[in-house]
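Subject: Coenzyme F420 hydrogenase

B.,
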Amino acid sequence: MNDAVLDPQDTGPSKGLDTISLLSSDERLKGRPKLCSDCGLCDSALKGRMSSACIFVHNQTAEIEQRLHGRGRRPDDERRFGIHRTQYAARMRQPNPQAQWSGIVTSLGARLLEQGTVEAVITTGAAPGTRFKSEPVLARTPAEVLATAGNKPCLSPNLRLLDQVREQGIKRLAFIGTSCQVHMLRAVEAELGLEKLYVIGIPCSDNVTYPDLEYFLTQVSRSPQTIVHYEFMQDFSLWMRHEDGHKERVNYIDFPMDKLHGIFPSSCLSCFDYPNTLADLTVGYMGAELGWQWVLARTEIGEELFELIRPELEIGELTSSGDRTRGMPHYIARLTQPPGAKKPPFLVRQLVAYMQRKKGSKGLEFARAIIEMKLLRNLNYVRSKFPRFEARVVPEHVYQTLEPYADKYQEVFGRPLAPQTEE
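Prediction pasted inline below.
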């Protein structure tokens, strides 16, 4: 089997690629790993470290966690959420209307600069003339950080800015980024010459190229060109806010998956760190109730970051309800079907969506469900598309987390869930 080539139907609608290299027709991306999230490391002077730092060449999560924490994950929620000291439900008392949620991440970056704790913040802004096209930003003022508020769910080569950090003599740096970026950053951290590094992680799943994002929005919205904000919410639906203020909502079960197949990069489908576990502080939402953000302080620096922003926060309660395990066997069986296959009639989908909101997992149980589903999906993807890569890109905690579903996995796929060692 030649796992260096994808079938044409497995490529994004806007890319028309027949190789697994992301945007492989782009000269800039030549020589990259077969799985590439365009993190930016290969655009920097650290390109030579790609083979020893890239999460898609060798996943070093366990080794980096040992260095950060002096231990591995405990056999509880740490297998799903990553090592953490404390976790909270929180939101800004005075929300930033431009932010994706309440503005914790950008407010924290701004405070670090205001107080002189850091000299610069690497973050992600929007390219001029667009709302969602990612552009790496090296912010030197609080205003520059606040100007980047809002989600840009596209691949962004933020690590290329490490060259500017070195050239400008920056010694105290904050980095805001996705899990693959953070993995690479941690792998080269000792070589950056920094006196202090603060890493704020954003949970990330299935970022896309900008053309594919535009394509996605045309498939799910009646007015894609007027969308100013959107998010995949905890009530099993996509919320979209438009220029005139009205909100559009589409249930997950109503997504035209047959038309969306192929828009997600192979790297994102081979990633096993949705919760951004190598950050100092992770700020997301999946583990919190609607309207709240989910904050995990993972290190001593993470606790320091949280205490810095705490006076501006309203602290809520983390809750957990529902039973994710009831629906997981059905989900595993669906992984064998083509995307969009056997879509139920409209009224049935409406009933399913209602029951998901009424009886489905909420709070921390919702986070457990989403993380386990993504682990299952991505493990299946790696095994079907890149089987030779499994030992290098799938960390051990994935198998430990999914072990309760081993029998169902064996029944559906005819092979063990646990990795098979070669004789």
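The chain is about 30% helix and 15% strand.

T.
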